[in-house]
Amino acid sequence: MNLVRAELLKIRTTSTWWWLALGAFLSIVLAFAFNAWYAVTVLGGDGGDVGASPEQSTPAAQAANLYTSGQYLGLMFVMLIGILMVTNEFFHQTATTTFLTTPRRTSVIVGKLLAASVLGFIFWLATTLIDLAAGSIFLSLNDYGAQLGEWPVQRALLFNLLAYAIWTILGVGIGTLITNQLGAVITAAVLYLVGTQVVGLLFLLLSNVLDSEAVLKWQVVWPAVASQVMITEGTSEFTPSWWVGALVLIGYALVSGVVGVLITRRRDIA
Amino acid sequence: MTDGQRSPTIDGQIVVSGLTKQYKNVRAVNNLSFTVAPGRVTGFLGPNGAGKTTTLRMLLNLVTPTAGTATISGHRYTDLTDPLRHVGAVLEASSAHKGRTGINHLRVICAAAGLPKQRADEALALVGLTPAAKRKFKGYSLGMKQRLGIAAAMLGNPRVLILDEPANGLDPEGIRWMRGFLKNLAHEGRTVLVSSHLLSEMQLLADDVVIIAAGQLVRQGPVDQVLGSMAQSARVRVRTPQAEALIAALKAQSATVDTDEQGTLLVAGVDAPTIGRAALAAGVELHELTTERPDLERVFLELTAGKAGIR
């Protein structure tokens, strides 16, 4: 518990989180504007033009989408926080002090993982409060009601929370793998932003070659796709069920957490 | 937990036993054994690359030894309950987040170690850094960074202090402060292990020395003893306008005499009074008669000759 407090204090006493929060806020604004336009289009009956299945064309599904606006970049920002929680220790050579204070390194990493989940929660809470306020106003103005009583909406909000926690944890895992701060941040951001498009293209090619649209659903193995799938209501030819996304993400979090602990236990701090 | 030690465990004693670290291409530390006693300042000396830092890091469980053990009060560092209350270490001057204030750096450590928050303020005051408490670390001078490192080490009021090159970057005033500070800690009965390559400083500071070179122990013991072991090589500087006559007189006393570029005689094998008497008897005029006290630097260079350098 002391270690979680110490990790959160580390975050609070530098200005990095502030910049990442600002970035997350801007991405919420942009995403909300886009999602609002999308909701109007889909609910207006033109869903087919933008690739939405009938299941995804309900007010509840669109409300879920609105209430999780900013998730795409927000998840990247919490992942970056997770990465910085580890790589800062090496960049600023505080790893020595940290491991002197707590020689049991597993505890240090577990502390970081727990603190990362707390941060993920805080980012989710702020994002969701903003989205709920803006979204319910928008939906009410368009006569759909806030839709908060709908299970798909509630589910989307809850699983969005899971996504934030997992991506921060994933960031900690990446940080232990790539301790070079610049290297880790750039690798992760590029994989997240560009990687998702590349994976999408690869699967599109693959589905053409194999002449099978079912292949497209396998994009879910890519973590960024998985977290989108997890919060999306219903399935289309592109997306499998939400729980597949959830399982994939939890798998990544487990693996990166365990690998992070194992690597850190063995590393010489020079 | 005595790891096969013959002597019983002494509180505050550091025991390094058969410590070895093999990196890919180099054996940084090779079967190194020594002990460090509480209540004394022990200088840990060696040329660059001798393995000092690697040894200290193995002692603190930051680096895993290939073989051997290092214990503090009979325990490996990892096995100490409340390590910060037992051992304080200063390893790198620049080990704080650049954007964090000094006081917050210490508070983070307090939080992780379960120490009360006000220890951070007390430790800052102890090293005279209170005025800079709320300044960010990147604005600190090298000397202030060293002091912050010492403050961090003192947070838990530890029994054992381990410092790697603490005098680096300190101005003369800072070095004098550090000397007094560490001597005082030793007088309070704490163990103080200081690595350094500033030999003149070590001669003023250390009670004991451990000298290593190329990863191996060269000599260990009280400073006076280590210097004394080299006393037979002590020389006397003599200046005289009648060098020829004096050399002849000294040769008769079976002394060995060298002459340097300035014509000063460097006499070994006899002491200053003997030379004075020989000069008087021979009617030789003397302008200087100085015993060159073997200082730590000379002893160190002789002991580590041929073992230093890049491996």
UniProtKB/TrEMBL annotation, chain A:
Keywords: Membrane, Transmembrane, Transmembrane helix. The chain crosses the membrane at residues 17-40, 72-92, 113-137, 157-178, 185-206, 242-263. This is ABC transporter permease. It comes from Micromonospora arborensis. The lineage of its organism: Bacteria, Bacillati, Actinomycetota, Actinomycetes, Micromonosporales.
UniProtKB/TrEMBL annotation, chain B:
CDD domains: ABC_BcrA_bacitracin_resist (cd03268). SUPFAM superfamilies: P-loop containing nucleoside triphosphate hydrolases (SSF52540). Pfam families: ABC_tran. Keywords: ATP-binding, Nucleotide-binding, Transport. Residues 14-239 form the ABC transporter domain. GO terms for molecular function: ATP binding; ATP hydrolysis activity. This is ABC transporter ATP-binding protein. Coiled coil: none annotated. Belongs to the ABC transporter superfamily. InterPro entries: AAA+_ATPase (IPR003593), ABC_transporter-like_ATP-bd (IPR003439), ABC_transporter-like_CS (IPR017871), P-loop_NTPase (IPR027417).
